[in-house]
Amino acid sequence: MFPTCDVAKKLQLGKDKVGYTICYGIAPYFRNRLLSKLHSVPHVVVAFDESLNKIAQKEQMDVLIRFWDPADDVVKTRYLTSCFLGHTRAEDLAAAFKKATENIEPAKILQLSMDGPNVNLKLLKSLKQEFSASDGNQNIVDIGSCGLHVVSGAFKTGHNVTKWNTVVFLRSLYNLFKNVPARRADYVNFTGSILFPLNFSSVRWLENGKALARALQVLPNVVKYVEHVKKEKKLPACGSYAHVETAVKDEMLPVKLAFMLSVSEELEPFLAEFQTEKPMLPFLATALDGLLRSLLGRIVLKEKLDAAGTFSKLIKIDLENPNSIIGIAAFDIGLAAKSELRKITKPSHTAVVSVKKECILFIKACSAKIIERSPLKYKLTRGASCLNPAVCAASVEAGQKQLNIALEVLIEHGRLTGLQGERASRSYVQVCLNSTAQVCLRKFDRARERLEKLWVELCASSHEELLLFVKIVLCLSHGNSSVERGFSVNKECLVENMKEESFVAQRLLYDEVSAAGGVAEVDVTDKMIDMVRSSNIKWKEDLERKKKERLDVLDAERKKKRTAALVKELESKKQKLVEDAQLQVSMLQQEIESLKQCRHCRCK
Predict the structure, then answer these.
(1) Regarding beta strands 109-113 and 58-69, do their DSSP bridges make them parallel or antiparallel, or are they unpaired?
(2) Which residues, by range, are in coiled-coil regions (predicted)?
(3) Domain range annotation of the chain
């Protein structure tokens, strides 16, 4: 590690050295580098989300920045800072947001990437009004809520409307055997199986496919276990067993689980593909359209679905109109659910009809939720599909139509001029009609290649306006998965009694090292060395500043107490003087009355 023993002997490492080196040397250097990059880019997307910080016992709002890095010609997402809040009302979030982005010009903020609670929508509305008032030419672009949250929430909504309550069963099934060796031993003894239920998360709904599949797999063994413990009178004295015992009495439980699993597996590929930091907005409309058509194809009449040939028509299908929905008899619950249904001995017709009706409700509610919060409602989401290589390769006319939709939105929001839009439209047609470009578009593999690299290559010569459009659209965030991935990093960083500034410094280091590709790839510059050398001085200055602030607070409190005591003393004196004066007045009044009586007597 050291070239000589003499060098090692000179090393001094106090208990605080690593801490202040990170907080006052390395982290500020990385932050300044990021801010200098952001200063040179024309557009940024700000992503944020909140989670509970169990150490600070506050809501922690992580703020990330997404921008086009001109050095590499790729879109990057970087950690900016974290804000710590007590309340998370819209006004609290707005104050924290402004503090986090105080070094970024408001006009540069292209989009706010967030999930869809009403408080966030209220924040977005207030920021739009404020930014438009300060700079009326450039406004924040909106493409709706995070598509990942929309799809995940739709599955939850579909389940809840059926009132199957399978979540309680699945969680109880896992907890029944969790950390209880005796029950696990009885289960193995009674069933001969060593397969146990998996944990079911009531938050990450579409990551529970494995838990649903395992529950379906072990359900016959669970029934055996319940029968044996009843027979041998070894009933577990816990709420989980009571829920499981009640649930397995439902003969249609396997059918319900199989149906839920089939819907989950239909939706999960969307989440798996779009949980990435790569630019995916051009693929979002097509993916959501395919997902919706697949779901609606189960319950909507074929002629109605075929008539909805475009994105805008698809989301206008009236799911509450009975004339649009197929009958219960024609509804197909799926091969997996049918297979489980055939295993039931003489199922009642009423039960089968009831399950089918509930499955239709599941699909209807799930689809309605996707439509309600769908990014497909926004013109820019649909227009961005013009940069989807499959769309360009299939039909230049269709691609240009979507391009013009996107250009109208960006011109309306002051991100492009009308002249730039016209030039971009002409360049788009020229690029897409080029035979070499067509080959590149057809060969593009979005699983392995980056979309921005393709379009930079295609726009390399004399297509500046089209490239500007590409940079704006590809910077837009298709979801909030980048922020949520950071929650896992937060858990790794947190330790007991950690200060907020120490946490932010660690996240900045982690982000920079990850972006560089590892510790060995971080560029150690003279500026970094200088900042590390001066970190001790800055640390001590900050300690003195904080000490002075504490003393000022204590001094202010002492002054406040002295002032309060003096006020109390003066109030007491005032009260005494008032009482004495009242007494004097009373005595004088009595004397006056006495004199009046005496004069009256003499007159008589």
Answers:
(1) unpaired
(2) 540-598
(3) 18-143+478-533, 149-371, 378-475
Q: Are 257 and 200 in contact (CB under 8 A)?
A: no
Contact criterion met (CB below 8 Å) for 437 and 460: no
* Distance in angstroms (rounded) separating the CA atoms of residues 200 and 156: 13
3-class SS of residue 359: helix
Closest of 394, 393, 396, 423 to residue 407, by C-alpha: 423
Q: Is the pLDDT of residue 599 over 80?
A: no
Which residues, including other chains, have CB under 8 Å from residue 182's CB and lie 6 or more apart? none
**Are the C-beta atoms of 311 and 230 separated by less than 8 Å?**
no
Taking residue 488's Cβ as centre, other Cβ atoms within 10 Å add up to: 8
Alpha helices in 248-378 (DSSP H): 253-274, 281-299, 302-307, 311-314, 335-343, 349-372
Which of 30, 2, 12, 5 is closest to 504 using CA atoms? 30
DSSP 8-state secondary structure symbol assigned to residue 325: B
CA 253 to chain centre: 33
pLDDT tens, residue by residue, 315-331: 888 888 888 899 998 99
Share above pLDDT 70 across residues of the chain, in percent, rounded to a whole number: 95
| Distance from C-alpha of 135 to C-alpha of 298, rounded to nearest angstrom | 48
Buried b (16+ CB within 10 A) or exposed e, 318-342: eeeeeebbbeeeebebbebbeebbe
How much is the pLDDT for 192? 92
Q: Which tens digit of pLDDT belongs to each residue from 430-481?
A: 999 999 999 999 999 988 999 999 999 998 878 999 999 999 999 999 888 8
Residue 77: its H or E element: strand 74-85
How many Å apart are CA 298 and CA 291, to the nearest integer?
12
| Nearest C-alpha neighbor of 39 from the set 100, 108, 95 | 108
Return the bridge partners of 51, or none: 60
Q: Tell me the longest C-alpha to C-alpha distance in the chain.
A: 134
pLDDT tens by residue, 470-507: 999 999 998 888 888 888 888 888 888 888 899 999 99
Rounded Cα distance, 488 and 249, in Å: 39
Report yes or no: 402 and 198 within 8 Å, Cβ to Cβ: no
Cα–Cα distance between 155 and 157 in angstroms, integer? 5
Cα gap 413→407, rounded to integer Å: 10
Rounded Cα distance between 309 and 312, Å, is: 9
Hey, what are 257's tokens? Answer: 């689980």
Q: Are 226 and 245 in contact (CB under 8 A)?
A: yes
Residue 459: CB partners within 8 Å, gap ≥ 6? Answer: 427, 431, 466, 467, 470
d(CA 65, CA 47): 6
Which residues lie below 8 Å from residue 323, measured CB to CB, with a gap of 6+? 301
Quote the pTM value: 0.84
